[in-house]
Specification:
The chain is of the alpha+beta class. It has 3 helices and 10 strands; from the N terminus they run E-E-E-E-E-E-E-H-E-E-E-H-H. A hairpin with a 4-residue loop joins strand 1 and strand 2.
């Protein structure tokens, strides 16, 4: 059996504003079934950074996330449009804007899909090494952030206890720890 892509019969934007873009597709599945209301979220790319200080601390941000109505501990990240800036430029910008830290070395570890079932964007995950505090925080109107330093040896325990529970952050941590073991 060979897998086949769905055929798009019609596509239109049903929501199109600065906070949310949703496309409604009418698709034909490989088995011939027609779905006329498959919704896709059109989302910006994300740059996500695992910043590590010279003291082997990971710089996290704690902030309210309205979608789940929870205050969460996660790695610094932010949206960008690839037509306007590169992923590394966005990673540098978001790291400094959210935390006041800059990375002496920023390494793109991988680009992954965020939620390919319903979202069209990617997450570009970076390892930031030898990050230094500059104090230049510049938050967006929707952001209220607490910067939290966690010793790298305690990060996995925070995942296992549920304190860190955001998928992109967890994927980045595991990739970052493996990257450090193999290449640094």
């Amino acid at each position: 059996m060979s897998l086949k892509k769905w055929k798009i019969l019609n596509s239109e934007f049903v929501i199109n504003n600065q906070w949310c873009i949703v496309r409604q597709d009418k698709v034909e599945l490989p088995n011939g079934a027609i779905i006329d209301d498959y919704f896709v979220n059109i989302r910006p790319e994300i740059a996500l950074v695992m910043p590590i200080t010279p003291n082997n601390e990971v710089v996290f941000v704690r902030q309210y996330r309205h979608g789940v109505k929870e205050i969460l501990l996660e790695l610094p990240a932010g949206a960008f449009e690839p037509q306007k800036e590169t992923s590394i430029t966005a990673a540098k910008r978001e790291l400094e804007e959210e935390t006041g830290y800059i990375a002496q070395e920023l390494i793109l570890m991988k680009t992954i899909y965020d939620n390919p079932v319903k979202d069209d964007n990617k997450i570009h995950i970076f390892l930031g090494l030898n990050v230094q505090k500059t104090g230049q925080i510049n938050l967006d109107i929707t952001e209220e952030i607490e910067v939290v330093l966690v010793p790298i040896k305690d990060v996995i325990d925070k995942i296992m206890s549920g304190e860190i529970c955001v998928a992109g952050t967890i994927a980045t941590i595991f990739m970052g720890l493996e990257f450090i073991k193999k290449y640094h």
